[in-house]
Amino acid sequence: MSETTATPNTRAVKAARPRASLAVAMLGFFVVALDAQIVNVALPHIRADLGGGLSGLQWIVTGYTLMFSALQLFGGTLSDRIGARRAYGIGMAVFVAGSAACGAAPSLTVLIAGRVVQGIGAAMITPTSLALIREAFLDAVQRGRAITYWALGGSVAAAAGPVLGGVLTQFGWRWIFLVNLPVGIVALIVLARVTPSAGRVAPFDWAGQIAAIAALGGLTFGIIEGGSVGYAAPEVLAAFVVAIIGAIIFLIAQARGRHPMMPLDLFRSGTVSTGLGIAFVTMAAFYGVVFVQSLYFQEQRGASALVTGLLFLPMTGLVAIFNPFVARAMERLGKIVTTIGGMVLMALGLIALACLPADAPILVAALLMVPVGLGGSFTVPPVTALILDQVPAARAGTASGILNTARQMGGSLGIAIFGAVLAVQPTFQTGLRTDYAVTGAVLLVLAVAALRLRRAA
C-alpha cells in the first residue's frame, strides 16, 4: 500500500521539476533580455531627472552590458562549481537587488552602480538557465524543444522591451527597473521546486578574469569619457593604459595559465575568428542603433517615450516573427550564405539610415530600421553553428561562452563608440550618419571575408 501510494507522488514531482526548470530558465532569460532593451527609451527622462550628459546616458546602458559580457564565462564556471540551481539563485538575487537600487537611485552615480550590479547578476543567470535545462531534460528532442521555448522568451523580451519601456516611462522611469522585482521574486519561488544541482571541481581563472574586467572597463571608460572631456585628458589616457596592460596580462594568462577561460588555440581557425568578429560587429551595430535612435526620435524629432517604443516595434516585432525562418534559410542556402545575406541586409539598412534626410517622416526611419534588425537576426544561428562545427564536442561549452561574450562585448563597446562619435561631431545628425555609414562599411568588409570562407570550404 505504502509503495503504491508513493509512486504517483514521485512521478508528479519528477514531472513537475522539468517544467519548473524550464519556467525558471525562461523567466531568467526573459528578464535579462528585457533589461537590455527597456532602458533606452527612458534615457531622456532619466537625464531630465538626474542630470548628466551623453556620457552619463552611455554608462547607464554600458554599466549593465559591460559586466554582463565580462563575467559570462565566470558565471558558467561558477555554475559548474556550485551547481546551476544555486548559482542561478545567487544571480537572480543579485539582479533583483540591483534592480531595486536602480529604481530607488537618488543620483546618476547610484543608478550606474545599480546597473553594474544588475549586469553581474545577469552574467550568472544566462549560463545557469541553460544549464538547468540541460539537467532537467535528458531526452535530446525534449531538450531541443525546451531550448526553443527558452529562446522564445528572449525574442519576446526584445520585441516588448522598447514598447514596455515607453509605457512604463509614462508613469515614471523608475518603473522600468522596479518591474524586475516581481518577476525575479516569482523566479526564486519557482526555483525552490527545481531539483538541486550537483557541483564539481571547476577551477577559476582569477588572473584572466580580473585582467579581462580591467581591459574592458578601461577601454570602455576611455572611449566614453574621451568623447566627453577629450582623448588627451589624463584620466582618459590612464584608462587606455589600464586597458592595454589588462589585455596583455589577459593574453599571458590565457597562453600560460593551467585553466584558461578563453583558450587561444580556438582562434587558430579562420572560421572561428571570422565568426567571432561577425558576432561582435553585428551586436555592436544593433545595440548602437537602438541607443542612437532612442535619442534621435525623442531629442531630435520630439517623439514621446511611448511613441519611440512603438517606433521600434516594426524592427523588434518582425525579428521575432521571422526568427523561425532562419533555420530554413540555413538548410536551403547554407550557413555562410545565410550569414552573408544577413550582414548585407544589415549594412544596407544602416547606409539607408545614414542617407535619410533630417526632416524625413519618422515612420520612414522606423521602417529603415527593420533590415538592421532582420539582418542581424539572420546572422546569429548560422554564426553559432559555424563556430560550433569547428570545435570538438568537449569544448562546445567553452566556445559558446566565448561567442556570447563576444556578442555582449560588441553591444557594450558599440554603445560606447556610437555615443563617442556623437559627442565629437558638430551636430547630432552628422554623428548619426558617421556611425551608420562606417558600421555599414565594416559589415560589408566582413561579408567579403565570410565569402572567402565559403570559397575555402
UniProtKB/TrEMBL annotation:
Which InterPro entries does the record associate with it? EmrB-like, MFS, MFS_dom, MFS_trans_sf
Its subcellular locations are: Cell membrane
The answer to whether the entry has keyword Membrane is yes
UniProt KW keywords: Cell membrane, Membrane, Transmembrane, Transmembrane helix, Transport
> Where, by residue number, does the polypeptide cross the bilayer?
20-39, 59-78, 90-113, 149-169, 175-194, 206-224, 236-255, 276-297, 303-326, 333-354, 360-388, 409-428, 434-453
Q: Name one GO cellular component term.
A: plasma membrane
- Its topology with respect to the membrane? Multi-pass membrane protein
Top-level taxon in the UniProt lineage: Bacteria
> Has UniProt tagged this entry with the keyword Transmembrane?
yes
Task: Specify the protein name.
Answer: Putative drug resistance transporter
The organism of origin for this protein: Microlunatus phosphovorus (strain ATCC 700054 / DSM 10555 / JCM 9379 / NBRC 101784 / NCIMB 13414 / VKM Ac-1990 / NM-1)
- The organism's taxonomic lineage, starting at the top: Bacteria, Bacillati, Actinomycetota, Actinomycetes, Propionibacteriales
